[in-house]
Design a protein that fits this description.
about 230 residues; mainly alpha; Endonuclease Iii, domain 2; Endonuclease III, domain 1; 12 helices; about 65% helix
């Protein structure tokens, strides 16, 4: 069995960018996105997985605040401590009832042995994703983000990510936001580097939004001067 494909160094990133440049649809996207920074893998394991669950549907700032409170509340960040935490204390950290259930389910699965984060390192992408989503509280989005960010997998394409769908729609000039099935079809030519394609599209969308905000701020400033 071949080893899982990872982005382990800058050379891998350069290989990905060369491959993606063969698709003319990404030419304008790459130009606006600019240089894609190499990201070393962030810490993997229980804490990294829980941080991803906490971050769902939140801004980066809000997620960081809540996760910081959770770390302070637990002390040693281990499954046993999380399972023992009381609902009121987790709520005080900013965690909703559903997220509390999700993270406790993950902690219990690790202690029971039904979730083995160490074994994920050796699994192929599909097997690793299946192992993760088999746990209640881990959906496809969480699994994909963990594989991308914590394990540095190179060909992860989170088809259910609404932000990525919107970014793909704008970048490719589609009339409406693509479905998950359409996202899968659109990305086939980017294999085996779809993680980098996703990052490029996210950066491209972020740049456009920032440019719009700057343009709107400049227009407001101009109008104030004309008064």
């Amino acid at each position: 069995m071949s080893r899982p494909h990872r982005i382990a160094n800058r050379q891998h990133l350069e290989q990905a960018l060369v491959h993606l440049s063969n698709d003319p649809r990404l030419a304008a996207v790459a130009a606006r996105a600019g240089a894609i920074p190499f990201r070393a893998r962030r810490a993997e394991g229980f804490e990294a997985l829980i941080s991803i669950v906490v971050s769902q549907q939140l801004s980066v700032a809000a997620a960081d605040t809540i996760f910081g409170r959770l770390k302070a509340q637990l002390g040693p960040f281990v499954p046993q401590k999380l399972l023992a935490a009381e609902e009121k204390d987790l709520r005080h950290c900013g965690l909703s009832a559903p997220k509390q259930r999700h993270i406790k389910s993950i902690a219990a699965a690790i202690l029971e042995g039904t979730l083995d984060l160490r074994c994920l390192r050796r699994m192929q992408d599909d097997d690793a994703r299946a192992h993760l989503v088999a746990v209640k509280g881990i959906g496809p989005w969480t699994a994909d983000i963990y594989l991308m960010s914590a394990l540095g997998r190179a060909d992860i394409w989170p088809i259910g990510d609404v932000g990525l769908q919107a970014a793909t729609q704008r970048a490719l000039g589609l009339k409406k936001r693509p479905s998950e099935q359409q996202m899968e079809r659109l990305s086939k030519v980017w294999r085996p580097w779809r993680t980098i394609a996703a990052r490029m599209l996210w950066i491209h969308e972020d740049r456009i939004r920032r440019e719009k905000k700057l343009a709107q701020a400049a227009l407001r400033a101009k109008k104030r001067k004309q008064r």
